[in-house]
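Researcher: We're teaching a course module on how sequence relates to structure. For the next exercise, students receive a sequence and then see the predicted structure as tokens, so they can try to spot secondary structure elements on their own. Here is the exercise chain.
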Amino acid sequence: MEKLLNDLKALLGEEVALHEGLKADLAFESEQDGTLSSGDYLRLQQRKYYWINQIEGIEARRIEQVRKIAEDWAVDARKLTLREIIARAPQDDGSRARRKATVRSSRATTTR
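Model: And here is the predicted structure for the students to work with:
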């Protein structure tokens, strides 16, 4: 179980980083206010599609990881939330607090 939880934690970290990359490109695009050349705009669009494709891939991996955890716990994966995973996960030397911080920073990025 510890491996499943650690893998989920790593996936959440990757997912947050991908969302931050997309957010940065969206902010950059907003700041340009029409000053980008067509070539630069096209490259920016390609980068945003890259972020989206990566996010979709990692979301699929996260959903599969949650399914594995739910199977191990004999619960319905569709109803298993990060809050419940944290509550059920073994506690040790402050890892619960770290997991809560991860959930807070990724809350908007982990639900569809």
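Model: If you want an answer key for the exercise: Residues 2-109 form one domain. The CA atoms of residues 24 and 30 lie 10 Å apart.
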